[in-house]
Fold each of these.
Amino acid sequence: MSIYENAVRKPVTVILIFIGVVILGLFSLRYLPIDLYPEIDPPIVSIFTFYEGASAADIETNVTRILEDNLNTVSNLKELTSISKDNTSLVMLEFEWGTNLDEATNDIRDAIGRIESYLPEGVEKPIIFKFSTSMIPIMLLSATADESYPALSKILDEGIVNPLNRIEGVGAVSLSGGPEREIQVIVDPRKLEAYNISVEQIGAVIGQENLNLPAGDLDIGSYTIPIRIEGEFKVSKEIEHLVVGTFNGSPVKIADVATVKDTIAEMTIDERSNGRVGARIVIQKQSGANSVAIAREVKEKLPELMRQLPPDIKIDTIFDTSEFIENSINSLATTVLYAGIFVVLVVLFFLGRWRATFIIILTIPVSLIVSFIYLFVSGNTLNIISLSSLSIAIGMVVDDAIVVLENITRHIEKGSSPREAAIYGTNEVGLAVVATTLTVVAVFFPLTLIQGLSGIMFRQLGMIVTLVVIVSTLAALTLTPMLSSHMLRLMPPRKPGLSKAIFGTIEKWLEKLDRFYERLLKWAVHHKAFVMVGSAIIFIASISLVSVVGTEFIPPADNAHIEATVELPMNLRLEKTQELARQIEQIWQENYPEIEVISTSAGVADESNIFSAFGENGSHIINFNIRLSNSTERDRDIYLIGDLMRKDLSKIPIIKDFSVWPGGRGEMGSGAGNVEVIISGYDLDVTGALSEKIAERMENIEGLRDIDISREESKAAYQLVLDREKLGLHGLTTSAVASAVRNRINGLVATQYREGGDEYNVRVRFDEPFRKSVETIENIRVFNQRGEAVTIGELGHVEEYNAPPSIERRNRQRVITVTGSLYKASISDVVNQIKAAVDDIGIPQGVGVDIGGTAEDQQESFADLGLLLILIILLVYIVMASQFESLRSPFIIMFTLPFAFTGVFLALYITGTTLNLISLIGAVMLVGIVVKNGIVLVDYINLLRDRGLDLNEAVISGGKSRLRPVLMTTLTTILGMLPLAIGIGEGAEIWQPMGVAIIGGLTFSTLLTLVLMPVVYTMLGANRFKREQKRIAKLDKEIEA
Amino acid sequence: MKTVFIVYNQALTERVEHILDKLNIRGYSRWPQVQGRGSINGEPHQGTHTWPALNEAVLTVVEDAKVEELMTLLRRLNDKAEMQGLRAFIWDAEIGI
């Protein structure tokens, strides 16, 4: 017994199965985490190696190259890049998307294990570091304070960081830029000299005095009592009274040679929020946790936590990814809702029956909810991709139900009982319904096979639409006939009234349309040549539109977040940098009222920080993190504001270089794409000169911003050159001298002062005036074994030199990259201009130039999509050919395809949208959507021909009778896509090109093929008559005498 | 009016249909997949593993004038491939509704 027959006979089972599915779906929805994108972990593994004291060139030859040569054997490796800087080597391995990183990391560990012994002495163990999206902070808060500033770190640590860390799903809450308490023993070198005491002596005394030690147990009588020596400082003032030596018989106390300050550590970084001093609180989530829920809970907890803080501490949000996520998700949910309403209206408009409309509409929630079960089971999140997939699917899920219901209604009107009508009606169209679904599946399922970044983005889309459409077909084959058999009946003519007035008018109107189409078809089949040539001209003309429509990779979105970095001349003092930072903040706050929070950090976070190896840093760098009001509340988008900011920055003469990233750095889907010119060659001078020339040319290219050369400018440094002979004479070693200099300039951490469970450094160092010139270094006195003091000036001299720049390598070749971000320009134009510029400059011997960046990704993705398109067209043809059991019919239907692309280009051109990944995916989808109309039309014409109608007659009456179902399914798909194409709300604009492409392609191809396809049919279908004649002649032979 | 009962190997379906079309015989009832066995010779048509072939049966009521022509054509068809198996039987019919 067939599935629909069973369904009609067992209504209770069918209803309960679907209710069960809906309940499961709603249950899954409740537990689905919400996120912006599917989890995408970049397949990159980095290896840090520290080699104290080595220069960039040493690091390159002794560490980086050895590592690279061995890591190159790791499988699935796509690209190997490295940066060798002073003291550190950073090797980055980029893998193919979809590589199992755990396995890769194991391979890397093995490779490192093999070569560890070949690395020079003194190289620290290489650190393997995997980056994941959950490391991107979901919230960034800024804390500012006035009086409480010195204690800010401690207050925040206890009052905010720890409580927030306890929220479920929070991965890490960290504090940066807050002041750290430090006890400083500031020494006057002249007094030291007078008393003949060294910094090391002071340090040793402080370290030895600050001590608690259990000394054992005393047996007193019949008791055992422990004895302890308690020397730890109770208050920091105690340090002043320590005795460090004697002079002329009287004790010398620390207070005699130094001042003790309980203060905050010298800052190498200056954190400000809206110009006020403060710290930053970074909140990261655990992998797989729900960003939105975490952010909500953090926001709920904050006011409560803030009440317990001193009143002058203020906490602001710099950015909150959850806000953008929530807005995007909400706007997409509205989109789905609107799409649903449109679909209902279309169905009601054409059918004019409430019950029928209800039956069809019921398939929407049933099939959409299944996608939640899929997302939940596969461990995915509710994100932009999954929700927009629903939005895309919503117009398609009703198609099958429409076809089935229309046929059932026809049977009922002929006089069948609803029950039999449901069974036979479904039987008649069952195969066609399955075939149209298969064509859609043939398009969407291969989407799950795309490789690379776009593959990860579109896997969910492909799976969800495939699933939803299959379920909708199942519902159309079971739920729809079952409900029809119970709810539909032969309708008596409408009684006069409002409904008759409305639906009667619509009906008349539709009949007029039918007649108009009939006349049009009659005209068309008699003017075949005209129709064919006209269509060909339209198609060829549309091809020329391709050059007018710009191309880009992924359309940028406005997430109300701008990041900027300003680079000042090297070696600039932090105070100067701060001053300029304040100046820029002021300009921006005056010019852009849209800015809500400006958070600025100037200087180095922490030299020993693993992250500092990633980017540029130094006292001359200022980083801005700016949050603007919501995109719906302002007129200027982040790209325009970013551009204006660039103009502001270019007016300040001291600024050496700057970059502005609207949307933030490294955030996928937002932020503009970039172009990278990779110059490879061994000679650093040659490549350096070439990179500057290319950068200069790129500055002049319209549509490129933020031109940046990857190699840093060489940095001025002082070097102490010691004379070994003199060292030997005085009984000193380089290490003794070096540590002496370090202890005086950088300071000697003598001990940890404990208070309230926290430890603070006690640092002994020279007073500031004695750390300001080269002479002070030469005047430093070093003590030898015999206790004699020698000044460093006697041992060597201080030289100024330029530290070699960092050395960047890619695939084991030295490279320099010049990058520029794209602004309102198509990538292909820019790449061509750069190519022309490079040709013009001329490439020196032994140097290679490549263009990469987003351009590279784009070419890869576009090539993938091209292959995919061919694969999908083949698959769709196969599916249709097997359905019609004919090679000709699908060929006729395929005539729709070129005009779908014509429609896409036309729509993109009219709306000024670019040809990008998203609109291209839309075009690929069209292949499956557009042929549905053809299947409905050609199938019915074939049927009429089988029933013996003559060719032209079959084409005209077939076309006329299929006009309404074709218009109906097309309109539901188009209107379902409309909210997406208009792009209401935040985040939805990413999907606009897809909606535009599908609407344009579907509208145009439907209009044109309603005329063209019947004409093509009459041309190719004439053969059928000859074939039939042949068949009859053959049969005649069999019964001949 | 005569009733003609034609029973034949499934393989001949198309040809029998063609004969009916040729003689403008519109009305008929047909049983697809009928099991049968010839009285004298030939392989049984049972639809089993041993005898996989199957018959089809057509019952048509035609005017007396057409019977002769129908039988001629059917006989010719049978002569071309005798081992396929085709039999036709004629009896009188009265007009019902």
Amino acid sequence: MQKQKVIEAISINKYFYSPVKVQVLKDVSFSVNKGEFVSVMGKSGCGKSTLLYVLSTMDTDYEGKLLLNDQLITGQPSHNLSILRNEKIGFVFQFHYLIHEFSVLENVMIPGLKLNKLSREAVEHEAMEKLRIFDMQDHALKKANQLSGGQKQRVSIARALINNPLIIMSDEPTGNLDKKNSDLVFGIFRDLVQEFHQTMLMVTHDAELAEKTDRTIWMEDGRIISHY
Amino acid sequence: MRFALIFEIAKALMLARMKQTMVAAVGVTFSITMFIALLGFMNGLNDLLDGLILNRTPHIRFYNEIKPSEEQPVQFFEELQGYYNIIRSVKPSGARVNIYNNEAIITTLKDDPRVLGVAPKINVQVFFNVGKVDIPGSLNGIDVAEEDRLFAFSDYVVAGDFMELQYTTNSIILGKGAADRIMAEIGDYVQVTTAQGNRLLLKVVGYYQSGLGELDNIQSYVSLGTAQKMIGEGSSFVTDIQVKMHDFILAPKTAKEYSAIFNIQADDIQTVNAQFETGSDIRSMISYAVGITLLVVSGFGIYNILNMMIYEKMDTIAILKAIGFSGMDVQHIFTTIALCIGFVGGLLGLFFGYMVCLGIERIPFETEALPTIKTFPVNFNPKYYMIGAIFSLVTTYFAGFFPSRKASNIDPVEIIRGK
């Protein structure tokens, strides 16, 4: 059976212009199938994060084609991309990027409210369910800045999940955490893939973590050098 | 739902920087307060000064002007038609100052729906005989009740009861200046001589003070009947017909219309008192200018505070964009913040402005020239409050516009990578 491609990059080239023109991505092509846990590995400065932001649709300044769920998204207006990001892509960043003015629960709810498909009560219920997966339900009413780093990261994963996205992208999700928390977060990722068949794309420089994923893409100097 | 979310985020951001938000709102409150107080006070004064003249001036005045006849007999001589007829040294005819058929004119005017009321008047030139000296004066014979209803006559009668003029025969209300000069107390009798030579004793029943010294020195009032008696005319004799309109804007048009119908002279208030309008306009222009300046300054305050907020909340903006908020949504969030500051600040400003106006209205302000005024005048026209409300929203919107647009253009990748 042909596996469904969730995201596909076709010969992506990207340049940085200041101070001089540098090519940071060189003819990068790969795809991620549904339910797969893929990691992108490489040394710092190899372009892996840049690649992630191109895939995330936030960075639109590149050459090549990007397909999400077999739909071409290169060249779409930014308003459509926003809607797409909201609905189809979940993000987990190295720095937790919760909105400190809101409670944990509200942070998880915001993308759901933005999507505006369910009533507020339904979104709240969903958000509670997601928090329960990570055993964070007791902290739901705390402000985001009252949590520890590991807790914050779990909340941001819950937030990424709220709209049941096609794919979750994460940029060094454990980079800012100690060993214990980082194992915890990685464990959550594994569980999500195995139990919920969530598609995952993770950028990391930690070879140990990368080894535990289904497939690792190695990058060096803007190119994919190995793929297994 | 969509807006509710944007509003919720805006609210959270404002609460997070409560102090700054409040400072911005206080700026708006202060400027709107000053705006309302200034306009209320300025326009109160304007109304007072205009009222000094305009309330007492009929909107239209009908009278027969003493002037040379425009149609000289030679023009009716058929054989000389088509020639240049030059007549030198034309004198005014002994024209009748009485308005011909005035009762019919008054009835017609009273039936006109545009007209609020009509008051006839007789102007008599007299001398007050005080010992050996004759002091010139001008007597107005008035219909007391109508004069009071239309031109607030009683407001300017500072001593005595103005209705005495009607109830007591041969009575007079003296101008305050004139009374001081002839040293007549209320209850005294003064002797007057008319230009025609009739002499009459009149009982002083009150003083009249308009606030315009020149007027008070010569103007005095008697009843219509007394005036007619003084000049030896019947009860149909009237020299002026004063008209008050519902809307005085219509005065010039109406004046022209009736002037043609009745074939008499008609002056409208706009033509006679053009300079008062100009003065008021300039005064309100100054108050608007000051008010708007204050608002613009507070607008810069909002601009600064929003800019700071955006720098501080870069992370929040980046994350909002990453989870699917478009640039437009972000712009709406910050515009909402600006408008909330404008709305709350403006609302408080209107309230405090109203309070300040109430305060000003209580400050005693007594002057010889203005007998009816005891405190500073303030205008509470809701128009100024509307303008204040609209201005506060418009300026805050523009103050918020550029920072919000900057926020909408923030590139989330740069922020997220930049750490």
Amino acid sequence: MESRTPTLAPAEAWQPLPARDWTPEAARHLLRRTGFSARPELVAQAAAAALPEVVAHLFTPSPPLPEPFALRKLAEEFRAFEAEGRPDSEAERRRRRREFQDKARAAFEDFGIAWLQRAADPKYSAYEKFVLFLQDIFVVAFQKVKNPVLLHAHQQLLREHGTAAYPELCKRVSRSPAMVQYLDLQQSRVEHPNENFARELLELFTLGEGNYSEDDIKEAARAFTGYRQRGGEFAFVRRQHDTGRKTIFGRTGAFDGDGVIDLIFDQPAAGRFLPRELVRFYLTDRPLPDEHLEAFAAQWRRDDYDTGKLLRRFFTSRLFFDPAFRGAMIKSPIHYYLGLVQDLDLDVAPFPRLTLSALRQMGQTFFNPPNVRGWVGGRTWINSTTLAARRQLVEWLFTPLDESKLNGDEMVELVAARADGHARFNVEDATLDSLRAMEPEVAAQTVIDRGFGAAPPAELRAAMAEQFAEAFRGGAGNERARALLGALLLSPHYQLC
Amino acid sequence: MNNPHTLLPSTRREFLRTGARGIGLLAFSRFAPDFLTSTALAGAPPPESDRSILVLIQLAGGNDGLNTLVPYADDHYHRLRPTIGLKTSDVLRIDDHHGLHPSLAPFREMLDAGSLGVVQNVGYPNPNRSHFRSTEIWETASESDDYLPSGWLGRFFDNQCGGTPATAPGATATPSTTPTPSDIPVGIHASNEVPPSFLGENPHNIFGLSRGALRPRHAGAARLVEGLLAAEPAASAGAGADDNLSFLQHTMLDALATEKRIQRVLGGMKPDGAYPGDPFANALRGVAELIAARLPTRVYFVSLGGFDTHGNQLGTHAQLLKQLADGMAAFQKDLTRRGLADQVLTMTFSEFGRRPSENESKGTDHGTAAPLFVMGSRLKAGLHGTAPSLDVGANRDLAFSTDFRRVYATVLDRWLGCDARAVLGASFKPVEFL
């Protein structure tokens, strides 16, 4: 895709946004892009503070996500299972394995729900979305890792160290048990190094395709031999590790894994990788011109690859607020869902069968990207199938929960959610009544301010007001208003941010 | 909301006919010129029942070519694969040198029946061993060191469907047949994502078949969505027709109309014992239904994954090839039974073959060239191209002998009736399977 030249020159692009440009409109842009929505009270709060403080606040690491009960239990059982040793009969082994898999799946789903609930909390939205961004770089998938305890730990690693220096994060990720499992380091030994991790480290985590040779991969793979995952902990098995001399990027030495990562960050391409990903995830799906990217990369190299500083520079830059980029990104399924939850003041429904499968049908399965590259995003989110799934989601959010269709586990969840006061799973009449109390033009403007990424043209604005007027006419209940609001939430303007 | 006259019309044409309000809004819609002229006013061209159709099957992960088309008589084969090499007595012999994997019995029969061709040793110069990059090269039909923004079938759609000529390298495109009305998908895929092969320079109506997506449901808000979409004036195009807003508008309007159409065909599909019950075969069955329903769509894409066999590959690979051959054979029989076989060409591809020498985990690592299959009633059956030389050292790769773009050129020129040069940007010598 061709790049869109920003109106700013490379040197100006990364300068801080002048205070006079820090308007409520700019605050909406920041909140929608860093989080999932722009709630009026948070927009007002942000606009009243200074931009650097707002950004520093948004990217303060969130506390660990408590392990859901099922996950804790699974971890215990897994340890007990390992301590017991292998059952004698093949049939028993198979039975135990299946039992573990069933429990693992259930725990994985609980983890998914728990994360969505965390991310839906506006206090944590921006940071958890950043964790999602990192998960989309350091991809691991349930499908292969199979043990959700490892995924939970992997996510916590990214959460805890995400804003540290990037090389440091890469080193930690190389020791993440989920990663060791996912990219086959587990099988990599001195006589037969497995190239999978080394390849993705260079291609998908740090340099990008075209910035290394096949030989670099082969040699780097030797340096990561002996990395193991044992009972959910990282272990380094010295006798499986290749201590010999390796030649990588033309430099020769007895490098170990960390040594290879240090070498990587001497490569010019390493400075451009994360900035490019950041731009793609948060700003625009069209690549920036090389000069703009390089100007950003150069500053990051001078900051010793400090990711916290990178984030602060990026989200306070003039470029980030360039009007050319506003309201032009397509929301990911997770963004779309959590945005709806926040915009409509709903709670995440703790039913995997509904919530997680809605995400899957829209094309984004929790912790299960299609492959090691992660989700491509942008326009690939949208096709007739995923649009149908988005529509189904909206219809679901407007339909009262039918308790008779819930199973036993779901009823337990429902009772617990009600006890916590977090059981608002569908749009209630109160939401519609509050719109009804407004003049049609005001109702239209409210929806626009709250949810539309880009300002709609006058014709659409007029059509909306007209529809609202029609929906509120007479005493026909809220049926028509409900359909109208649903339609607006499906409109292209709402699907952009 | 339940009045029959407010139900979602199933085509844009119906939308125009049924909604007086609709036409009012659409009169200033940015879509109006395109689809008013192509369907409502000019009248849609009748679906051509004799259109040639391509069904592309992706073997995702990199299929092990040497254990698919087995050079059983070559000593090198057995030297390179001491444990995962197939026994000479097990392979389904084609000639004195080659045989098929034992899972491919239906393919062996089709070879005799004249409906299967094998193009040997297909690849490209300077092979890339990254799944993503190599898939991208196959899907965009680019040189190994070149990056193209569009897929080869996307550029075919660009050419077929009018609009701005495609910018294939050095190409000047001319629309060669009647444009497809925009509420009919030009390509239908059964895979999780839109295949990059389908992405054109211009947006096209691409439809994804997936389980659960076709459940009929009340289309309550849909009419309103359509009305709102139509209320967008052309003037809002600010950033030009390639921005995400117009992309969404266009895709949504088309999706609403297409979904209805497809639902009508597949909604009544009953189980059919002639197909194996797995998702791959089911997808092919859906494709057969749609073709039988005379949908003017000319390209279908079905993906079968799991071919990345790095370890203990014998069982996995046998299973995958069985799934492939059984599904494809059932599809071909079904088409024949319905009298549609002459219209359809089915072709497989995979991002790369695997390394000739097995690895220490009884699997194979990423390699280069591999054979691909073509299936249909109007092709020259048998082996095409030349076999690779297996006289390679440990951990070395095969040198390809047929460039994959020659296969594409053959399909474009001789099957889809499109100027291959316009799509591929250069001339490639056809392979004589068509």
Amino acid sequence: MSRPTLFALQVLVAVVGIVLWQVLSTVPVFGKILLPPFFFSNPLDVFSQIVKWFSSGVIWKHLGITLTESLLAFVIGSAGGVLVGFWFARQPLVAAVFDPYVKMVNALPRVVLAPIFALWLGLGIWSKVALGVTLVFFIVFFNVYQGVKEVSRTVLDNGRMLGMSERQLMRHVYWPSALSWMFSSLHTSVGFAVVGAVVGEYLGSAAGLGYLIQQAEGVFDVAGVFAGMFVLSAFVILIDFGVTLVERRLLVWRPTVDGRG
Amino acid sequence: MSTPTAVALEDAKVAFRLGDGRVYTAVEKAHLTVAQGEFVAIVGPTGCGKSTLLNVAAGLLKPAAGNVRIFDRPLAGLNRDAGYLFQADALFPWKTALDNVAIGLEVQGTPRSEALPRAQQWLTSVGLGAFAGRYPHMLSGGQRKRVALAQVLIRDPKILLMDEPFGPLDAQTRQVMGNLLLDLWSADRKAVLFVTHDLEEAIALADRVVIMSAGPSSRIIGDWRVGLPRPRDIFEVRLDKEFHALHREIWSVLKDEVMKGYAQSTQAAEAV
């Protein structure tokens, strides 16, 4: 299928969806409105809410806060994941000792940590960053751990036979292998950084997209909730697009297995 | 007056501890020498431990008994005089062909600015001058072997250890690679220990062909000198009368081992 046709079809899905939503929430069918505006709002109201946010400029502050939180969570979580992942993979004893605890913490639904973080770090951005970090850390950690452990035996032997010292093996073999695993999970970890930020905001904050949605919900402003959701989706898609660009640059040496990106 | 010995395995025995605690003896009392400038091929049925023997010579494996001497010095740790060409893909997938070749020099402390032009020269001499910027996954199997060959040879090792290096390649590419190897080798005649299961390849390439018995506890059971004149062309040499005579002679010994090895591998499968 050609690109323009595909794009046209994709747009068509959106148009049909929005039109259906608008019609069903405003025009009575057999004397009954199928999507009561109180619960479902309607596309026009949602759209005008989004326009209002952007024209008045209030949204930028919230977007900025969420973006900052996500980025911090991603950077800190990744750095921690890489370091600990490397450490565990190179020190099997440490890994064996900590294994049950890592599993235990990872099994915990991270949302329940939000109140603790709010208590420890306050309602500012750091409690959200912390929540995001707990999500990002484990993804990166497991990938790096795997990446270092599953370095091909042959490639490793080859490095040794070429005369590499432990340090050179680290730099030329383990490190690139670990990074490639980390980058392959980039979409997931960036996504989780955003999830951490938004959920944290939703559960208690004074700014951010999660806060906007939570506020709207608090006053039964369904149009506001939907508007927040749409802005959030667009925000995540933009970030994901950025990740794809970065990934394409960093993983040129990899064969493309899937058609993603 | 004899040429110095590059590799000497003296009654080397290789054993592994299996998961259930039993000890599996892969190679028993292997005695093998490779003189400087000599091209020796080891041939044996699958699973006879010929790669194991190569790993012992490389220092990747420690023999359970016996000695390994490299240029008359006992080998401790990795064999620093040897370059190793692996059967499986061993290139660094995250490095371009050029960087893969250059790394052999960079590891020794050669500055990158000096290593890169020399790597480019080596890529050209294995016929890949135009592929310097490609990553391994963008190269064919034969091209990857060429890069691997350049990666090993750029370090100018005194000994070349090759573990069925052309095994994964198709028949034609193997012959082309064989000729390339002979060309490069004839320039400075390193000592070569070349493991293969292909008797024809062994005779066509080597000065001496060593036959191993079927495993476990396999031993070296034959040692033939190949008198075919050099320089050789692998395509032509196979038509030579002497080649055929030698092939028949060695095959008569090897055949029994191949059948034994086959029988054992099927029995082992039935036992499981």
